[in-house]
Amino acid sequence: MTTAATQQSAGSGLKRLVERYPFLPALAILVVLLALNGIYQPRSVSLVGITGLVKTYLALMLLAVAQTYVVFAGDIDLSAGAIVSLVNVVIIVLMEQWGGGPFMVLAAMGVGILAGFACGIINGFVVAGLRLQAIVATFATSIFFTGLALYVLPVAGMPAPAAFWRTYGGRFFEVPFVFYAVAVLATVLYLLACTRLVTRLLAVGDDAQAAFQSGLPVTAIRIRGYVLCGLFAALAAFCITGDTASGDPLVGGKMTLFSVAAVVLGGTALSGGFGTVVGSLIGALIIGLINSLVYFMGVPSQWQNLVQGVAILLALMAGVMIGRRARR
To answer: If DSSP codes are grouped into helix, strand and coil, which group holds residue 172?
Structure first.
């Protein structure tokens, strides 16, 4: 009797833990992938290897965060990658035209933030204001934003100022710049988590009708979710510009679905109302580690996409199974 009661108590405790921290299954998968990467390439788990991983996938991490705030409210943004592309070419062209000096670089980044904000407003208006289906409306705006990006920079390859990409890949006081960026990101996410906006987004995603009846401005809340998505997508564009050191009007095309996959891998429900931003960050790192592992294993180039897709699917299945067993 005592043993059965103890097991039941432990099971209920684990269930509460997973419900409170839905990213725990993803964290377990992340640890396994880190170990596998270390086996095939020991340098990948060194400080240099971890720095390279964060530097390469910080843009995806930010875009996963951007997608999460929209998904919290039960929506989705298929234009997130197109916003990255648009902001990327806008800041590259402005830096080129304005001379590439430090103040002009900051000014161009400010315009990039405004561009991301404007894209978020547009998405929020067409989805929440006009009450169009999010998946269709944002697919349409993604085509529109991509067209704008191609108009601004028809051909990829315009280089970024050296000061920009050297800063992103450089060190300050012997600490890689990307770690400062991660620290700032963590602070911003913590401050956002302390606001009522995140709670309201989750409330709308959980039951929009009940949220409306309780007096919450559902339309305004959904618009704010899209605005947050646009702002974080602009930050992702800064990172991918620093990593690639060039402008490309199609650079964010593949990132949209990867951001959705990262959100799901992190334990956030696409139906809304449940999840964490931390889980999305872990999900983005899982995708990065899968890509690295496929490369370290020497998979032929023609098979890499197939293997990556299967690996992401297996990781998603493992996360779901671990989560369900823990809840039982």
So the answer is: strand
Low-confidence ranges of the chain (pLDDT < 50): 1
Residues 255, 153: Cα–Cα separation, whole Å: 19
Q: Which residues of 160-191 are buried (b: 16+ CB within 10 A; e: fewer)?
A: bbeebbeebbeeeeeebbbbebeeebeeebee
Is 234 among the domain residues?
A: yes
At 202-219, the pLDDT tens digits run 999 999 999 999 999 999
* CATH value at residue 315: 1.10.3470
In a domain, 317, yes or no: yes
CB 100 within 8 A of CB 245: no
pTM, rounded to two decimals? 0.92
From CA 90, how far away is CA 145, in angstroms rounded?
Answer: 12
> Using an 8 Å Cβ cutoff, are 208 and 74 in contact?
yes
Tell whether 144 is covered by a domain: yes
Q: How many CB atoms lie within 10 A of CB 243?
A: 19
pLDDT digits (tens, 9 = 90+) for 307-323: 888 888 888 777 667 65
Full residue range of the structural domain in which residue 252 is found: 25-36+43-327
Instruction: State both tokens at 54.
Output: 């964060």
| Residue 106 confidence (pLDDT) | 93
